[in-house]
Design a protein that fits this description.
homodimer; 159 residues; alpha+beta; 6 strands; DNA-binding
Chain lengths: 159, 159
DNA sequence: GTGCGTGCAAAGACTTTGCACGTAC
DNA sequence: GTACGTGCAAAGTCTTTGCACGCAC
């Protein structure tokens, strides 16, 4: 089936939204250093933009916004950096349509649930703590260790 | 953001696993007729194979298995039929990695939860009724009508 | 100095589409 | 008989990769 993990839903950070004591750039820097990689201006700018977007984004959007701000970064670098950020557990790939990959900042945040309005196209990230409990229970019952969750609800206005 | 619905998680059938009174081919036939489309041998064969697979599958797998059984169907027709089956609410696209789309039979079945073993690559569909309740509650609170759910848990053996 | 990083363009993987011929109703 | 369906191959889209040059450590 060729199901390569693709770091599907990292959750490396602490499990609450509050307890971040370290800026994300430091987290990224450390992760890079651990792999013998460098914290370059391009990587810093990309992470910075992701923090400013603070929500769902796509590779293309990210690239556009970087260019709008006058940064010169190539598409290749954006994709390569996104992959590094995923591996560092800072962002997560959120696959909900087949068109392209979407990503979101997850480090230091509780796993969220995406409420996708199929009529308007809006996507809202909501917090549903019970889901994490259910996930943990399911894993515990099977001797597994959870490494991430993806919960998406598709809905329209009540007609 | 270009979030075209892509019939993300249809749930057209009844909400339990038991109450199917009509064969799937009849459901498909009716859906096609409703759109002025035809129930061709290729479409019948593809649906039949999906029923026999009875679990997750991909376009490629489906094509291979059809060919193994001696059916001559083109890749284009497989993709086109998959889209029709999605629209008919018979199958659902399950996006959990970026490599390719996976699908599963959903008509007449309760929404399931996919437990993805990232170490072994196994994917198991499990039934977690509470999730449906949570989904319904979330939607009710917001005046929305649920049209589908995607719940995926990524886990490894407890180390 | 070495090795990692970047940009560009080309390549890749999956999926969709155009076209001419065939077939269901 | 008409309109939809199919197969083939070409085109598309997002993403990855090869290569030469550049910069960080």
């Amino acid at each position: 089936m060729d199901l390569r993990p693709v770091s599907p839903a990292n959750e490396t950070g602490p499990d609450a939204d509050i307890e971040i004591t370290e800026p994300l750039c430091a987290v990224f820097r450390r992760a890079l250093k651990g792999e013998g990689l460098k914290y370059t201006p391009e990587r810093a700018q990309i992470l910075d933009m992701i923090i400013r977007i603070d929500g769902l984004f796509e590779a293309e959007t990210l690239l556009d916004r970087l260019k709008d701000d006058g940064f010169r970064v190539s598409k290749a670098t954006v994709y390569r950096t996104i992959k590094l950020l995923e591996e560092a557990g800072i962002i997560q790939r959120v696959v909900f349509d087949r068109e392209q990959s979407h990503y979101q900042l997850v480090y230091g945040r509780r796993p969220n649930t995406l409420l996708v309005r199929t009529d308007t196209g809006d996507v809202e990230a909501i917090d549903v703590p019970e889901l994490v409990e259910i996930r943990d229970r399911i894993c515990r019952e099977r001797g597994l260790e959870p490494h991430g969750t993806r919960f998406q609800i598709f809905a329209t206005a009540r007609g």
